[in-house]
Amino acid sequence: MLQSQLFIPTLKEVSNEAQIPSHQLMLRAAMIRQLGAGIFSFLPLGYRVAKKVMNIIREEMDAIGGQEFHLPALNPIEIWEQTGRVEAMGDVMFHIKNRDGLVLAPTHEEIITVHARQHIKSYRDMPQIWYQIQTKFRNEPRPKSGVLRGRQFTMKDAYSLDNSWEGLDESYNKHEQAYRNIYTRCGLKFFVVGASSGAMGGSASQEFMVESPFGEDTCAICEDFGYGANIEVATSSLPSVSRLDENPNIEEFPTPGARTIDHLITKFSIPEDRCAKSVVCFVDGEPTLILMSGNDALNESKLQSALKATNIRHAEENELFDLTGAHAGSIGPINLKTPLKIYADKRLENANGLVSGANKDKFHFKNIDLSRDCTISGYFDLRTIKEGELCPTGCGKGLRVVNAIEVGHIFKLGTKYSQALGAMFLDETGTEHPIIMGSYGIGVERIMACFIEQSHDDKGIKFAPSIAPFDIHLLGLGLKKSEAVQNACEELDKKCKEAGFDVLFDDRDVSPGVKFNDADLLGMPVQVIVGDKNLAAGNVELKNRRTGERQILPIGEAIDSIKVMIKGF
RNA sequence: CGGGGUGUAGCGUAGCCCGGUUAUCGCGCCUGCUUUGGGAGCAGGAUGUCGGGAGUUCGAAUCUCUCCACCCCGACCA
Question: Which tens digit of pLDDT belongs to each residue from A426-467?
């Protein structure tokens, strides 16, 4: 296609509102323009990339037997009320103001389940994999980082319907493999982590992650990728606090100035893991004391799922005093002013010889035996793992803690939605069961942005052929001046097309520098440069945008070399 | 929702504290000539509700109030 006739308004500079490379480059390379907070228009070049990503997704979904739907974004709120998600979503869901009873869909579990209820009646009707690529609306409180977190975005969402739990496992595994194929084909470096199902419900879930300092998720990954987990669920191999043979009675002792665990460790020579740190939280409104070993950080996600709670908040300073009789630093499980339910981290299970606050300012107890001196309602894994701790698989390697961008998430939903909406089937014996479901999502814009994050330099984007807007950027230098260059370009353009390549022919009457810089910015995998100097000797130049490698070769050999170069990506 | 910041031509910006000529500069755009292998040169030209509204003042981009939009940090994140 002729660049002179296309709308590709590249920018030399962008406002400092765009702070991360992918956002800056998508603006500069004329892929997107911002219309409002978290709202973006795709320009032709950007949409070409989006379409290539969507086609890869489509091919891989079709390959596992997926059937493409197109569901409405406008949904009757009534359906969402039946699963309790109007409340669960809260402000995230957009509500239509001038037509009662309609919302904009943030995802489509409910709608899929409704259609399944209408027609999936027998175990013989399953398995099914239904998917769509569609616009989602989520009223994010704070959109950020360009297209990485928007209020309107494109998502491939898929849903599996099965008649058995084994069937669900199979559908889930198919999706996992399809997702791996999709990211690999898009040229993304990614990893997979175990994740929390959160408010989606269900038994298991995994997230597909791209490491990035701009990621909003934190993951623990083993150096050799044998283990990966979202920090919300990550565990590590760490010894429990051992039980001491000597077990004297508890004893109060003064600890002036000791407000932190570190003070107890340094000023009173107490081993870190013998310190039982107390945290007071309101769990669904009920004040609860949580005991952690040493400086272990309480992981609220773990607490939430362990106690099956929906809302957790830390107690405020004045509430702490009212409940326990002491201020932060002197709180503990014994001698509480108000009896509180007490949970403890698994590392403290059955531990003794512990030091904890006396619920009296500037005093602690020592020799605490949790099984003798306290009533612990339950021991759970509640700690947040730290960088460098050993991999829980026992491989002996350390864990890295990294920021990451979530580009996909797969869930074993189970029967939460089918039960709520009454999507039932009859098994071989005529017994009725709820359909067993899975749900699988991929963010299309996130794939694009993540690719650019991983593949750019100070000049611009370095696209892989699989998702590049064009395969080849043909640069004609001094076209007006030289008929030979013009003819050579037209000839090459034609030959490249015949060879099956998409070609962007820069036929604009602008200086060579402009063309080179635009070409590097836009980032097509191969640049073919035709200028009169090389052409005088019958040569053209190829440039590999990724490696920067250049070849000057006879025009007749260009096509074959381009093929080799593109294959090498 | 809390905290911080920004809003000036198509884009990027200076000026604002300390009110006072015709609102600065670069890019882009239009006309002409020259130029053409890494964002060309010269000459001429067009383009502004200084985010909106209200106020203070002889006079407001500049001070005050208010509303709006956007960005960043936090909270939140199916």
Answer: 999 999 999 999 999 999 999 999 999 999 999 999 999 999
Percent residues over pLDDT 90 in chain A = 84
DSSP state, A186? Answer: T
Report the distance separating Cα A489 and Cα A518, nearest Å: 18
Of A423, A455, A513, residue with least CA distance to A130: A423
Q: What is the pTM of this model?
A: 0.95
> Nearest residue to nucleotide B6 when comparing alpha carbons to its C1'?
A17
Most confident of the ranges A231-245, A283-297, A387-401, A425-439: A425-439
A52 closest CA partner among A418, A459, A463: A463
Q: What single DSSP character describes residue A348?
A: G
Task: Measure A138 CA to B28 C1' (Å).
Answer: 36
Tens-digit pLDDT profile for residues A353-377: 999 999 999 999 999 999 999 999 9
Dist. CA A232–CA A382, nearest whole Å? 10
Q: Are strands A363-368 and A251-254 parallel, antiparallel or unpaired?
A: antiparallel
How many Å from the CA of A207 to C1' of B43? 62
User: For residues A485 and A492, what is the distance between their CA atoms, to the nearest angstrom?
Assistant: 10
Which residues on neighbouring strands pair with residue A76, listed in sequence order?
A102
Residue A51 burial by Cβ neighbours in a 10 Å radius (0-12, 13-18, 19+): middle
Closest-approach nucleotide to residue A146, Cα vs C1' = B71
Report the alpha-carbon distance of residue A482 to residue A555 in Å, rounded. Answer: 16
Expressed in percent and rounded to 5, the helix, strand and coil fractions of chain A are 30, 30, 40
Query: How far, in Å, CA of A460 to CA of A545, rounded?
Result: 10
Task: Tell me the nt nearest to A520, Cα to C1'.
Answer: B38
Rounded to an integer, what is the distance from CA A540 to the centroid of its chain?
44
Q: Which nucleotides of B are covered by protein (CB under 7 A)?
A: 1-2, 11-13, 26-27, 35-40, 69-78
- The tokens describing A372, both together, are 């003798």
Provide the sign of the torsion angle of the four alpha carbons A238, A240, A246, A249, taken in this order: positive
Rounded CA separation A325/A110 (Å)? 48
Residue A197 reports pLDDT greater than 80: no
Indicate if the alpha-carbon torsion angle A296, A297, A303, A306 is positive or negative. negative
Residue A311, nucleotide of least CA–C1' distance: B76
Tokens of A64: 């596992």
